[in-house]
Design brief:
The protein contains ten helices and 17 strands. By secondary structure, it is of the alpha+beta class. The protein has a domain of 245 residues. The chain has a 17-stranded mixed sheet that branches. Helix 6 packs antiparallel against helix 7 and helix 6 crosses helix 8. The chain is globular. The chain starts with a helix and ends in a 29-residue tail after the last helix. This is DUF3108 domain-containing protein.
Length: 395
């Protein structure tokens, strides 16, 4: 019986495998869709994800506008030192010295009285009064205006970064003799070539006065901005439009050294919250840049840590998301130790000091930091590249 039932049991056949390709395709589509949604969300909330330390600026405590810089009369530098006087000075030399040293006044007064009639004594004392008045005027002239000191010249070397990825080293050539200046910035970028920015001009009553700014990005033709101080006009090769040339106008890179010269001249003025306005011309337009002092921070370079003062360009208008941050280091003569530019889409270009952490012109700056950094040493090529204290001549 059991054998009969076993013969009539239905035979179980293996099921044919169903195709599963469509399942994998559905999973792939779902993953791609999730990635797209996540990317869109991240792009819209990029600003909210940024660290507070990089976006928050101190409350503005003072606003500085362009003004004339402190002037040092040429006559002050031309006055002879007492140690170099002749053994028998004549009356005119003694008279000049009496204006500098009040304790020497009786001697020239007696000499003058013996040489002229008594009725002419008042006339003899007139030059002394005139010199005293001129001295007071010169003292007032020295005290007026912003203090300004040009940074030391040198070939400055920087590590360059594009969105955090290190590229080939960049350079800033900076030189000034106190009357003229030249600045050339070279930043190599992969696949597109070297971006170069050059500015040269003179130093006038308001500091650096660019005469020509040239911008060349990779293989593209160069754009030139001309500052015509005779006609008070700014002209461009990129556009036929012209702009009025205001006093103390800068280009995109001379403004860094203009700021450095002002801070170098009077560091205590630039405390957190102090904002200074600069008129800056680009390759086709011009705008006022408000640059605010953020405070002293520690910057890490390949040579070690260095204290630097952080400055940030505030938004120029509503919706302006482009940022420029500059760190100036007092131990480097207030030269820029770091420059960071952030584009509206989040792209970042960065220059970070490369080489010895010493001011150009010093013995430490001329030392070579190992064989790998032999080309990164900063220092002057000749004695003319020593720190320059600005002495102004009448415009």
């Amino acid at each position: 019986m059991s054998s009969t039932l076993a013969k009539h049991d239905p035979v179980t056949l293996p099921r044919a495998r169903e195709p599963r390709g469509w399942r994998w395709a559905a999973v792939l589509v779902a993953v791609l869709a999730l990635h797209w949604v996540a990317g869109e969300w991240f792009e819209r909330h990029r600003d909210t994800l940024a660290p507070d330390s990089t976006t928050r600026a101190p409350v503005q405590v003072a606003l500085l506008t362009p003004q004339r810089i402190e002037r040092k009369p040429a006559s002050e530098a031309q006055r002879p030192a007492p140690a170099t006087r002749a053994s028998k000075p004549h009356a005119a030399a003694e008279h000049v010295l009496s204006a500098i040293r009040p304790d020497a006044a009786p001697k020239p007064a007696q000499t003058t009285a013996a040489a002229v009639p008594a009725s002419g004594a008042a006339a003899a004392n007139a030059p002394a009064a005139s010199d005293a008045h001129a001295g007071n005027a010169q003292a007032a002239e020295r005290s007026a205006g912003a203090k300004f000191s040009v940074p030391p010249s040198g070939e400055l070397n920087y590590d360059t970064f594009y969105n955090g990825v290190q590229n080939q080293p960049g350079t800033i050539h900076w030189s000034s003799d106190g009357q003229t200046y030249e600045m050339v910035v070279a930043v190599p970028l992969p696949f597109v070539g070297t971006f170069s920015y050059s500015s040269h001009g003179r130093i006038d009553a308001f500091g650096l006065a660019p005469e020509q700014y040239i911008e060349k990005r990779g293989r593209r033709p160069e754009d030139v901005t001309i500052f015509n101080h005779a006609t008070k006009q700014i002209a461009f090769t990129r556009t036929p439009a012209t702009l009025a040339l205001p006093d103390a106008a800068q280009d995109r890179f001379s403004v860094v050294m203009q700021l450095a010269s002002l801070v170098r001249g009077d560091p205590d003025t630039y405390r957190p919250g102090v904002t200074r306005q600069f008129y800056v011309a680009d390759n086709d337009s011009g705008q006022v840049w408000p640059i605010e002092t953020i405070g002293d921070e520690t910057v890490r370079t390949r040579g070690g840590f260095v204290t630097a003062r952080h400055f940030m360009r505030l938004p120029r208008s509503d919706g302006d998301k482009r940022r420029i941050d500059v760190w100036l280091a007092p131990s480097l003569g207030w030269l820029p130790v770091r420059i960071l530019q952030t584009e509206p889409n989040g792209t970042q270009f960065e220059l970070l000091w490369r080489g010895k952490l010493a001011e150009p012109g010093t013995a430490d700056a001329q030392d070579v930091q190992g064989t790998e950094d032999a080309n990164s040493t900063v220092g002057p090529e000749n004695s003319a590249n020593s720190p320059v204290e600005f002495t102004h001549e009448k415009p």
